[in-house]
């Protein structure tokens, strides 16, 4: 199984969503041989001029072997080859951190990962499970929510644009609280993730296998 892990926390391997991502990988490793490609989204650059020209001016061709076009080709290839995607991210200002937004801008590409039809944008990638692990200093969901959430609706919409509709969110909220409460929440999510992978993902796979 090829796993693509996008990590967009400036805390890198110390981030709580990265820890949760490792739980998913360990759990899947028990079921099959896994190969992980890890992208550090905090290191991704902004888009360059050739990329913008190619996307916005049909007919104009730019050199795809350099710059953002080359990086986009690589990131799309990684996404395409993956059997399962994990996105580990903090919430920044109610939304995506800029590194993750840069990854989105490199992979959501007209003519490559979606096409424009008379009824709207249509995804071109094969569907696959996408696990989005989000952490936030405060609460943005449930009864304790006190701030808007542009992260989860945006990720749902933008992944669907490229054909990825099988998206599952796991959140670790309120990390600004005391460390013990955060540890407990990470543990709770780890158990939730294990349960999900043992029950939901495997039963989905059985249904797919049985349909052949
Ligand atoms: C620039 C910046 C913006 C942030 N914006 C929010 C926010 O809008 N809402 C929130 O609840 N927490 C916000 N936080 C807090 C982080 O989401 C929180 O610390 C998170 O747990 C970090 O996750 P990580 O350990 O995966 O990096 C922000 C943090 C930073 C550095």
UniProtKB/TrEMBL annotation:
Domain Flavodoxin-like fold: 1-195
Enzyme Commission no: 1.6.5.-, 1.7.1.17
Keyword entries, A-Z: Flavoprotein, FMN, NAD, Oxidoreductase
Cofactor details (free text): Binds 1 FMN per subunit.
InterPro entries: Flavodoxin_fold (IPR003680), Flavoprotein-like_sf (IPR029039), FMN-dep_NADH:Q_OxRdtase_AzoR1 (IPR050104), NADH:quinone_OxRdtase_FMN_depd (IPR023048)
Reactions listed under catalytic activity: 2 a quinone + NADH + H(+) = 2 a 1,4-benzosemiquinone + NAD(+); N,N-dimethyl-1,4-phenylenediamine + anthranilate + 2 NAD(+) = 2-(4-dimethylaminophenyl)diazenylbenzoate + 2 NADH + 2 H(+)
Protein family according to the UniProt entry: Belongs to the azoreductase type 1 family.
Described purpose of this protein according to its UniProt entry: Also exhibits azoreductase activity. Catalyzes the reductive cleavage of the azo bond in aromatic azo compounds to the corresponding amines.
Assembly and oligomerization: Homodimer.
Designated name of the protein: FMN dependent NADH:quinone oxidoreductase
Organism: Photobacterium atrarenae
Origin organism lineage: Bacteria, Pseudomonadati, Pseudomonadota, Gammaproteobacteria, Vibrionales
Gene name of this polypeptide: azoR
